[in-house]
Structures are given as C-alpha cells and as structure tokens.
Design goal:
Elements (H helix, E strand, L loop, with lengths): L16 E4 L5 H12 L3 E6 L3 H13 L3 E6 L5 H15 L4 E4 L14 H29 L2 E6 L3 H4 L5 H21 L4 E8 L2 E2 L1 H4 L3 H9 L7 E2 H12 L10 E4 L5
Parallel strand pairs: 1-2, 1-4, 2-3, 4-5, 5-6, 6-9, 7-8
Helix pairs in contact: 1-2, 1-9, 3-4, 4-6
Length: 256
C-alpha cells in the first residue's frame, strides 16, 4: 500500500542503531522504513527471505536512509548471541530493539499439534527473550535503550483457533512488564504494542466472509495499516516517550 511506502519525516532518531526482527515484510517492514525515516540506522533482521530484507534495505537507502540486512533465526538462543556480537562489533552500540518476528500455526485446540504449539512459542515469545537477554547487558552499560515488543490484541482478548499464538502474545506482555521493572532504573524503557486487524499479506488472504466478520468487530469499521503501528513504535523509540515504560498500547480501532 502506498502509505506504507513512505519513510516518515525528521531525524529524531539520528545516530541511533535499531534492530528490527522479522523486518522483511508487513508490520516489520513498515517499522524499519519509519525508523529509518526518523534517522536511525536500521538492522533489518530476517530468517526466511534474504531477498525481501534486501528489498527493504534498498528502499531505505534509495530514500536517503541507512540500513543493512542481518540474518538470524531468533528462536535460536546461540544464534541470537552471535548476531548481537556481530552488531556490537560493527556498530559498538544498539539503541532500539523491536521484537516483531512472529509466525502463526492456527488450529483448534483439539487439532493443534505439539510441534505447531512449540514453534509459535519459540519464535514469538522465546525469540523476544533471546534478543533481550543478549542485548540487555549492552543496554545496561549504556544506561539507556528502548525495547518495543510487538504483541497482539489476540494476547489481550484471546482468539478461537489461535491458542498458541494468543499464548505467545500474552506471554510477551508479561515479559514486557517484568523486564520493564528490571531495567527501569537504568533508563531503559520496555513497552509492548498490540495491533488489531492490520492490512497485511496475511489479512489480505482472508476469505471475504472472515474479513467482513473481522471488520464488524472493529468500532472504527475498518482495518488499520502497518504505518499506524510503525508510527507508534517510532514514538516509543524516541525521546518523547522517555517516561513511558511497562505499558501495552493497542492499535486496534477500538476493539479492546
């Protein structure tokens, strides 16, 4: 969508280094573009498609921003450690961490396999733990940092057929609140953003009846855009949110 392609304006994040996981498409892509538009050097993390990540990097650089692609399966604890060491070795610091990487394996609980449950929790929840765990020591040394975890209204409300996904996103909220309390004394802010129905490739593939049912549950009567989420992330990543931590902010058109 055209509005997702705009980078944003200003340089409020100039000189900052931002790691965005799962940034090759959808909400992660929009976040990477907006943070770059605000002046940050964006590390576009990917696992599945290097090509998509390089497309995001190219778009940022064409618009005058700074970015690079970095591959890592965030569900792998040791791989995350190596990624962080590589980043610190090259850039010396990371100022912003956006845990956006996530997958779905939807099914009713009676049909949900153990593997599909575990894989969703490993990526969506343990992946965030992995990156926070490895980066927190550097945030503590810097005595500053912004961590933004992308949760979901499914983690707030629950959703039939998504017990694994909802559990992972609810867990992410608990992780956010706990880590916020641990790191607050060192000027490190940790918040969660909980998107509702957002126009992405995934929602575009919904059957028309399911799409209509989703929209009918939204008081504003429409789905949001990835840019709606990215703009909030940019605010939480910048200095205007320095006294906000441990919060869960829904971007859902009034669903919750």
């Amino acid at each position: 969508m055209e509005e997702e392609n705009r980078l944003g304006t200003g340089n409020g994040l100039a000189g900052k280094v931002a790691l965005v996981t799962g940034a090759g498409r959808g909400i992660g892509r929009a976040i990477a573009l907006v943070l770059a538009g605000q002046g940050a050097r964006v590390l576009v993390n990917y696992n599945g498609s290097r090509e998509r990540a390089l497309e995001v990097v190219e778009q940022i650089e064409t618009a005058g921003g700074q970015a690079e692609a970095i591959g890592c399966d965030v569900s792998d604890f040791d791989a995350c450690g190596r990624m962080v060491e590589e980043i610190i070795g090259k850039h010396e610091h990371v100022d912003i961490l956006v845990n956006n990487a996530g997958i779905t394996r939807d099914n009713l609980i009676m049909r949900l396999s153990e593997n599909d449950y575990d894989s969703v929790l490993d990526t969506n929840l343990k992946g965030a733990f992995n990156t926070i765990r490895h980066l927190s020591r550097y945030f503590l040394k810097q005595r500053r940092g912004k961590i933004i975890n992308i949760s979901s209204v499914s983690g707030v409300l629950g959703n039939a057929g998504q017990s694994n996904y909802s559990a992972s996103k609810a867990g992410l909220i608990g992780l956010t609140k706990s880590v916020a309390k641990e790191l607050a004394s060192r000027n490190i802010c940790v918040n969660a953003v909980a998107p509702g129905f957002i126009e992405t490739e995934m929602t575009a593939a919904l059957p028309e009846r399911a799409r209509e049912a989703a929209v009918s549950a939204i008081p504003m009567g429409r789905m949001g855009s990835a840019l709606d989420v990215a703009n909030l992330v940019a605010f939480l990543a910048g200095s205007m949110s320095d006294y906000i931590t441990g919060q869960v902010i829904c971007v859902d058109g009034g669903m919750t």
